Amino acid sequence: MSDTGTQVNIEASMPTVSPKTSAAEKAPTPSRDVIFEVRDVTVSYGSRPAIKNVTLDVFEHEITALIGPSGCGKSTFIRTFNRMNDLIPSARLEGTVTYRGADLYGRDVDPVEVRRRVGMVFQKPNPFPKSIYDNIAFGPRVNGFKGNLDEVVEGSLRKAALWDEVKGKLRDGAYGLSGGQQQRLCIARAIAVDPEVILMDEPCSALDPIATGRIEDLMRELQERFTIIIVTHNMQQAARVSDRTAFFTTEVESEENDFRSGKLVEYDLTETVFKNPSDPRTEDYVTGRFG
Question: Which sign, positive or negative, has the C-alpha torsion 147, 150, 153, 157?
Answer without folding.
Answer: negative
